[in-house]
């Protein structure tokens, strides 16, 4: 049976920090709008900030649905599930906010991700989520699967981009500045990566 938690700590925190992948779900307020579900990986790109707050790094991609939905209404669900060991599923329902490169909080937040070189993945935002409901369920139906390693493809694709070329890449995509449903997405032009967060600087 599922159980509710007051905070993200102890065994619960240990579990979610040990997972190599998690999933995010968001949606616009419009009932006919597009629900978005995304897998998030890359070891070191997720952090528990405190007992009710988590954050993850939002890297370059071909759309920005999560950012657009959070800018409109803030609703988000994060989900982790066990692919090895005891079966378990954990969901954090809460309110999220995209923190962009030109936000005064950027450098401090990046301190929670010491193992990530932000220049290698076209980092465009840090998603900060405040938990409103924390629950786990059994996960009996989740199969056993093994983790081998992170794919190197994302870094090899975006590590060669400068701030300027990354901005040009985003401008060429249909659903970066605007979501599939026409909501404001990633603000452009893309601000330069702050020097303190730039391993090349």
UniProtKB/TrEMBL annotation:
Entries under InterPro entries matching the protein: Pyridox_Oxase_N, Split_barrel_FMN-bd
Name of a matching Pfam family: PNPOx_N
SUPFAM superfamilies linked to this entry: FMN-binding split barrel
Domain Pyridoxamine 5'-phosphate oxidase N-terminal intervals: 10-138
Protein name, as recorded: Pyridoxamine 5'-phosphate oxidase N-terminal domain-containing protein
Organism of origin: Streptomyces lydicamycinicus
């Amino acid at each position: 049976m599922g159980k509710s938690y007051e905070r993200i700590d102890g065994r619960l925190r240990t579990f979610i920090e040990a997972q190599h992948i998690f999933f995010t779900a968001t949606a616009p307020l419009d009932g006919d709008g597009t629900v978005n579900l995304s897998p998030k990986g890359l070891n070191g790109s997720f952090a528990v900030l405190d007992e009710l707050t988590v954050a993850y790094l939002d890297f370059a991609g071909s759309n920005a649905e999560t950012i657009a939905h959070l800018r409109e209404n803030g609703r988000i669900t994060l989900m982790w599930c066990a692919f090895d060991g005891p079966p378990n599923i954990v969901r954090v329902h809460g309110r999220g906010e995209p923190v962009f490169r030109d936000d005064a909080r950027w450098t401090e937040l990046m301190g929670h991700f010491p193992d990530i070189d932000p220049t290698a993945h076209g980092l465009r935002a840090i998603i900060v989520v405040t938990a409103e409901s924390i629950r786990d369920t059994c996960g009996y139906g989740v199969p056993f699967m093994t983790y081998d390693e992170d794919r190197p493809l994302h870094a090899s694709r975006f590590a060669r981009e400068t701030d300027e070329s990354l901005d040009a890449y985003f401008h060429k995509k249909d659903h970066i500045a605007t979501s599939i449903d026409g909501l404001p997405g990633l603000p452009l032009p893309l601000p330069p990566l702050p020097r303190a967060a730039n391993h090349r600087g």
